[in-house]
Write a structure and sequence with these properties.
- With about 270 residues, the protein is mainly alpha-helical.
- About 60% of the residues lie in helices and about 0% in strands.
- It has 15 helices and no strands.
- Helix 1 packs antiparallel against helix 13 and helix 8 runs antiparallel to helix 9.
- The longest helix is centred in the N-terminal third of the chain and has 18 residues.
- The relative contact order is 0.19.
- The C terminus is likely disordered.
Length: about 270
C-alpha cells in the first residue's frame, strides 16, 4: 500500500524532464530518486494516522495542512511545483484554487485508510481541498482514490473503468497520444492518461512502463498509475524492497507504520 505510488515516482523521476516514448527503458538508475510525490503521499499517510477514525473533516484538513508543512520544511528540495512550493515557503494555510496534479499524486493513502468507497471519496476531497480546491483538482484526487479503493477491494478492471468514466471521458489509447503528449501538470491532462496506462496494463510493472512511455509529467503519471496498479495486481517483495530502498529512515518508518496499521491483521500486503 502506497508503495505503488512511491515506486512509480522513483522510476519516473529520471524521465520527468527527459521524456521517453517507449516501454523499453531502464526502471532504475543512479539518477533515480524520490520526489515531492513521495514526500506528500507520506505526509497524507502521517496525517491519517493521527486519527483513529475521521468524523470531522475540517479537523482532518487542519491536521493535514500542519503535516504537509512539516514535511515540506523537512524535504525542501523535493521538486515541488511553483505555486505549491510558494505556499509551503510562505507558510500559507488557505487553498489557492489549483487544478494541478498534486492533489492526485498524494491521495493514495486515503484508499487504504477508508472502510468504504464513500469514505475514500470524501477523504480524497478533503485532502485536495487544503490546496487544490478547484473542481478539477478535487476530481483528480477523487478519481485516483476511488479507482485505488475499488482495485484494493476486488473490483474488476471493467468496474474500475465504469467508475472512472463517471468523471473522465477516456476515448484514446496510449499509442494514439504517445507521439504528441507533452508535459502537463494539470489533473485533467494527467489523471485520465494515468488511468489509461493502468487500463492497458497486464501487470504492475507493465502499468509503470505504460505510464512512463507516453512522456509528460512522468513521475506523477507513474505515481498515480502505480497507486491503482499496486492495489489491483499487488507488488512482489523485490518491488516493495526496491521502492523503500530509496527512502530515508524517517520516511521508511511512515511506510512501515501505515502498512502495519491499515492492512488486515497486520499482514503486510501490497
Amino acid at each position: 500500500m502506497m508503495l505503488g505510488a512511491i515506486y512509480g515516482d522513483i522510476v519516473g523521476s529520471v524521465y520527468e524532464f527527459n521524456n521517453i516514448k517507449t516501454k523499453d527503458f531502464e526502471l532504475f538508475s543512479a539518477r533515480s530518486e524520490f520526489t515531492d510525490d513521495t514526500v506528500m503521499t507520506l505526509a497524507v499517510a502521517d496525517a491519517l494516522m493521527q486519527f483513529e477514525k475521521i468524523a470531522d473533516y475540517d479537523a482532518f484538513k487542519k491536521t493535514l495542512v500542519k503535516t504537509v508543512h512539516r514535511y515540506g520544511k523537512k524535504y525542501p528540495h523535493a521538486g515541488y511545483g511553483g505555486r505549491f512550493g510558494l505556499w509551503l515557503m510562505r507558510g500559507d494555510t488557505e487553498p489557492y484554487g489549483s487544478y494541478g496534479n498534486g492533489s492526485a499524486m498524494r491521495v493514495s493513502p486515503v484508499a487504504w485508510y477508508a472502510s468504504s468507497l464513500d469514505e475514500a471519496l470524501a477523504l480524497a476531497k478533503a485532502s485536495a481541498e487544503i490546496t487544490h480546491n478547484h473542481p478539477e483538482g478535487i476530481k483528480g484526487a477523487i478519481v485516483t482514490a476511488g479507482a485505488t479503493y475499488l482495485a484494493r477491494t476486488g473490483a474488476t478492471m471493467v468496474e474500475i473503468r465504469l467508475f472512472v468514466a463517471k468523471y473522465y471521458k477516456i476515448d484514446f489509447m496510449l499509442d494514439d497520444i504517445r507521439p504528441t503528449y507533452k508535459f502537463n501538470e494539470t489533473c485533467q491532462h494527467t489523471v485520465p492518461q494515468a488511468m489509461q496506462a493502468f487500463f492497458e496494463s497486464v501487470s504492475f510493472e507493465d502499468a509503470i512502463r505504460n505510464a512512463n512511455s507516453i512522456g509528460g509529467d512522468s513521475d506523477t503519471l507513474a505515481a498515480i498509475t502505480g497507486a491503482v496498479a499496486e492495489a489491483y495486481y499487488g507488488m512482489t517483495e523485490k518491488e516493495k524492497e526496491k521502492a523503500t530502498s530509496y527512502l530515508d529512515a524517517p520516511l521508511r518508518e511512515v511506510v512501515r507504520m501505515f502498512r502495519k496499521r491499515y492492512t488486515p491483521s497486520g499482514q503486510l500486503v501490497g
